[in-house]
Amino acid sequence: MGAGGRMATPSGKKTETEALRRAPHEKPPFTIGDLKKAIPPHCFEKSLITSFRYLIQDLLMAYALYYVATTYIDQYLPRPLNYLGWAAYIAVQGCVLTGAWVVGHECDHDAFSNYNWINDLVGLIVHSSLMVPYFSWKISHRRHHANTQSLENDEVYVPRFKSNIRNYYKILNNPPGRVLVWATTLLIGFPLYLMFNVSGHKYERWTSHYDPHSPLYSERERKEIIISDIAILAVIYGLYHLVLLKGFAWVFCVYGGPLLVVNGWFTLITILNHTHPSVPYYDSTEWDWLRGALCTVDRDYGILNKVFHNVCNAHVCHHIFSMIPHYHGLEATEAMKPLLGDYYQYDGTPILKAMYREMKECIYVEKDEGETKGVYWYRKEI
């Protein structure tokens, strides 16, 4: 039996029916200190060598794919088979670079090493290379971790209320419309969030991760935003000269296409880890940090779990203890499960099926009828 009282399946993973049961929303019978004691102490240890090993491993794999693609695809595959070759390269390279993105994301949480300057230097290089403003993202992402599932204060993927549903949602609330929304979200959702704060916390004025004077940032953080912008501009400048040298098509196939895949994976991962019919949102009368952190969902991406360094299937642990390195995430998760009980959320539904279901079932949030507490659940009826 877990803390919530329901027996887990023999594998420790919930069936789809179990996963769709509402998660407990009362204050848990354990504390953050209890959870920390349940985890082996070595899980909190960061190894600079191990972290670099994973990063170098990803970069070597990315270079190997680049070398094979640029050396053999156009030389040995006649048209139109070479297009299929480039499509395969873009898909696989995007997955590998998503893994590198995840290692860079470790730097946001100081989980890469015990040295802040190394974390920031590595994070700045990795994120900027993938067109993400490092310090800008680091600040807003940490705010998300500090306010997860808070209707008033969460930084991203803030759900709508029924009164805020626009007419085009009703038009798109059908199978073709849901596919279109997912395709658009995966293609441009992350850049739109960075540039225009789309789906982010609402501020009184225009907000952008590239604006040093954005309400996202304090006065003392503005220099870091400028550094992030300079790094992004340096990458754009390099890409501009690469286009002049190699042509736009070559740059798109080698870099632009995989980058779109990285953005798509990142968007999908974060949406599915935080959007589920079983997890609640809280207003300020009910929210507290631990209950918010527990409202994340571990997902199963099959072989990609390993490619993505288990950021998808150890996400609950990541939100509770973001300083734990990814290579200890699964062990820490298993150690916490007996104590978490029904407060641990896992859904092994195949990803494509989960995507469609969440787009259909999770349209807006509202309280249950007659509910006086500030607990909100996803609804699908428009």
UniProtKB/TrEMBL annotation:
Residue span(s) of domain Fatty acid desaturase: 85-345
Entry GO CC: membrane
Keywords, in A-Z order: Membrane, Oxidoreductase, Transmembrane, Transmembrane helix
Spans annotated as Disordered: 1-23
Pfam families: FA_desaturase (PF00487)
Subcellular location: Membrane
Domain of life: Eukaryota
GO MF assignments: oxidoreductase activity
Matches recorded under InterPro entries: FA_desaturase_dom (IPR005804), Fatty_acid_desaturase (IPR012171)
Positions of transmembrane segments: 59-77, 83-103, 115-135, 179-196, 225-243, 249-272
Main localisation: membrane
Any GO BP: lipid metabolic process
UniProt family annotation: Belongs to the fatty acid desaturase type 1 family.
Protein name according to UniProt: Fatty acid desaturase domain-containing protein
Organism from which the protein derives: Daucus carota subsp. sativus (Carrot)
Lineage: Eukaryota, Viridiplantae, Streptophyta, Embryophyta, Tracheophyta
